[in-house]
Every structure is written in C-alpha cells, then in structure tokens.
Design a protein that fits this description.
Blueprint (H helix, E strand, L loop, with lengths): L1 E6 L6 H10 L4 E3 H8 L7 H7 L4 E2 L2 E2 L1 H8 L3 H25 L5 E5 L14 E6 L2 H9 L6 H10 L3 H7 L2 E4 L4 H16 L5
Parallel strand pairs: 1-5, 1-6, 2-5, 6-7
Antiparallel strand pairs: 3-4
Helix pairs in contact: 2-5
Catalytic activity: 3'-dephospho-CoA + ATP = ADP + CoA + H(+)
Function: Catalyzes the phosphorylation of the 3'-hydroxyl group of dephosphocoenzyme A to form coenzyme A.
Subcellular location: Cytoplasm
C-alpha cells in the first residue's frame, strides 16, 4: 500500500481534489469530515469540547464559529483544542488504514500535514495549489469569512511555495475541473503502475 498525503492551504481546492481521488476508487480518509462527525450532534467529542470551552456547543453539536472565535489568535487555547481532537482523529485514521490494508493506494486528507508533522507518516505527498488571488476570492466567498480571519488562518499555515517545494506532486486547481481531474488520474496511474523488472 502507498499512503498518499493530501494537503494544501485554505481555499486551494483540497476537498475537491480529495473527492476526485475517491471518485476514481481510491480510499480517502478525510480528517475534516471525521472532525465534523466527532463534533456533530451525536459526536464523541462534544461533551469534552463543552467542558474545556463552555458555550461552544448546542443541540447541533459543536458550534464551529463560536469555537473558532475561542481559539483563533489564542495559541494556548488552540493547543488545548488540538489535545482533544488530534488523538481522536489519529485513532480513526489507524482504523481506516487497517480497513483498507489490501488497497494499493490510499489518500489521507489531513489539514496542516506539514505544520503538525503528519508528513512523516505518509509515503508520498501531493499539494493542492492555486494562484493567491484565486485563493483569496474563494475563501472570502465563504459565509462569515473576513480578511482578518483569513490572514490569521494563513499565518498558521506553511506558505504555499514551501509546500510546493516539499511535495512529490503538485495539483494546480486554478483551471477547470476537467484539468484538475486529469492531474489526479495521472498521479493515480503513476503510483499504481506495476513496476517493471
């Protein structure tokens, strides 16, 4: 099995690319989706989040906007949240890898792959990237997003140029969906092609 780490800064199209890998039949571990489930109405982390960050949960589970306000720009609070979330996500990831042990290729879509050391546990890295101006337009179109919030998020992320330099593959998402899908298929072919000799 080849474990392919998928990463990219906010607004670069990482979720779209992850979905394309899944559509091509590659098992996908989506860490964000796992966190959403763990913090959802029946989520295993809701009570712990409320205990550490009072007022950030309700009948729908964790209120992500309220939680973001509680931790963004507060390094100590962010570390407290990560200490809750990361072990739970790691446990889910190990279960995913065990369930797909026979697959020739799996994709781990993990935010902050470089920033939090996740790159050490993958075989190859693909970085999703787009021009900075496209990135800003995409992110600022999101509900509740402001220039200040975007800048705070970007400050926590490894710069795009550095991610690209450390990647085994770069997928450019500034063009059409078909152009992006062609790049995804080329990477799958490269990594699953039988070796000669």
């Amino acid at each position: 099995m080849i474990v392919l780490g998928l990463t990219g800064s906010i607004g670069m199209g990482k979720s779209t690319v992850g979905a394309m890998f899944a559509e091509e039949g590659v098992p996908l571990f989506d860490a964000d989706a796992v966190v959403h489930r763990l913090q959802g109405p029946e989520g295993a982390l809701v009570a712990e989040v409320e205990a550490h960050f009072p007022g950030t949960t309700g009948s729908g589970g964790v209120n992500r906007t309220a939680l973001a306000e509680a931790v963004l720009g507060e390094p100590a609070q962010l570390r407290r949240l990560e200490a809750l979330v990361h072990p739970a996500v790691a446990q889910e990831k190990e279960a995913f890898l065990a369930a797909h042990a026979e697959a020739p290729l799996v994709v781990l879509d993990i935010p902050l792959l470089f920033e939090k050391g996740g790159w050490r546990s993958v075989d190859k890295i693909v970085v999703v990237s787009a021009p900075a101006e496209i990135q800003r337009v995409r992110v600022l179109a999101r509900p509740g997003m402001t220039e200040e919030r975007l800048d705070a998020i970007l400050a926590l992320q490894t710069p795009d140029a550095e991610k690209r330099a450390r990647a085994d593959f770069v997928i450019e998402t500034g063009g059409s969906f078909d152009e992006t899908r062609t790049q995804v298929r080329a990477i799958i072919a490269c990594l699953t092609r039988p070796s000669v000799g």
